[in-house]
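Hey team,

Filing this mostly as a record. A colleague (T.K.) asked me to run one chain through the structure pipeline before their review meeting, and I want the input and output archived in the tracker in case anyone asks later how it was produced. No errors, nothing strange. Just documentation.

Input sequence:
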Amino acid sequence: MEILIGDPITTCLSPSVYDMICKLGFEFKENCNIHSIVAQNGEVCWKTITKCVSYTDPDQSLNYWESVKRLGPVCEAIHLHVLSLNKEQFEIQYSPWFQWTSFPELFPEVFEALGSLHSAAISLSLMKLTSCLERALGDAFLLIGKECPFLLRDLLASEALACIFGQPVMDVLKVFIGSPRGLNLRNILWHGFASPQEIPPKYCSTLLLFTAGLGQLLESYCQQTKVSLAHRSFVTLTNLEELIVFPDITHTVLSVLEELMMKSAFILKIMLPYWEIALIKFKAHRFADCTMLLLTQLEAGLRRVFAAVNKCPDTLLTAEEEAAVRLLLRIAEDYHSRCHPAFQLKKQVLSCEESVRKWPLLPWPEEPCQEAARLEDTETNACYSLITKILHELCHHVPENHRVLSVFDDHPAEEWSLLLGALCSTQVSMLFCPRAVLEVLAVLRSVASHCQQVSRQVASSLQLRHRQWEERRLHSRQRQNYLSMRASVRLLSPALYLILLLVALELVSVHSVHGKNTCEYQQYLKFCKSVLQYSENLEAYTRPEKNKWRETIGLTHAALMKIWTFTEKKQMLIHLSKKSTSKAIL
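Output structure:
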């Protein structure tokens, strides 16, 4: 971490953004009468506020710089007004107007944070407030619109919200949270740019009052149009028992973390209050608050590492939105996780290949090998033919400079190890995997897991039966079973190589699953599960207590027919992948 040690960083805001947030709203010193902003009954006088918004000539686009200046005294008056209220007064006057957000209990918390004068707590409250406001505005949008915009910027610019709240009001919101050219409070906090002391508390008070004012406007609109606001349901995490994979954090560990926070070069000193309050929230079992803070600081820390390693200190500072997104994507490009299903699947494929590669090294007496070869029948030969056809199709999708050689020799070529190694070294995006990708990975992992078990069982049975053969301890029926095993193993080796190649190729192209519509995806998942069914049955048939070696040939033939049919229709992910491929020699 020596590379991170240097001159202390005093801000992550670029000079222009720092001036916009920390200075501009304080330039005008005029006093603003609070009664011109808020009536006695708590009604927000939007006309006074919207008058402060400035526009440029001749196109009448927003002048963010001038608007922040002129809104400064208004924000100061609102902040002093909020601080003058006690909790009971605040709730009586404003609580009814927070109901439209579907999370009204948040706002008394924000009020208390403002009264505490704790900068990190105020910044956290502003993060939660802007998040809640964004969601509530999305619900309001759906009163008129059909599909809520993905970006807050687009939501605030929508005709639907302008119709409900009025364009001047939406312009006010754009100044505070809707554009990188304005205060942009939501983004600089949620992306870990602003330290606690850089966020003027008056902006939190102002957005608190604005949220109540928007509730008043919305109620008026709903009464006039006779519509009612419906709230979208929150996301509910399912299968939590599968997500709880990390050990509990003890008091001892927390003490160590407190020490590390003070010494770590990863943590910016100006951001330390966020880490301290995150720890407090964790101890209080406020895990959502803790997670919000840690996510923003994780991004800030990664940005610092990136800037230091690449010797580009300017990337540590705020930039236009597009540049900030590009930077985050660059940081995430090479992200790998040993716990990720894709990484685990790669390990399984390579482990299984290594295991199958060792089969020829096991004892193979000449006599039973010759007899086993004679036992091969029409169905076995049909399997060989199908494997050859499928490999001919798959070989068009292997990496350059790799050849898929014959899998029917007693000693499969080392190129198989190199080929699967090359496929498993191909980068697969792990940072964000949608549900469809994770479902496919889960099935492929199960396939690989069963193939691993099959390989272990085959190796164990071969060793045991060979020893019994050499010691002449096999009865007539056991001898016949051993011969069936040898005949079956001659087929299972290329069959498993084929399955491993199929799994590895689909893994490399797994994100192409988004190219399938719902029906196609369900068909593809059904195909993957049929391969899984084959691997499960194969594992069952090759268990020592089963010894159904002859049956594995029919099982393999049926599975190969399904694979060939699906491959011939070009419905696999490798056929959707846009990556350039090269032909290989079979």
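Quick notes for T.K.: The first helix runs from residue 15 to 23. Residues 341-575 form one domain.
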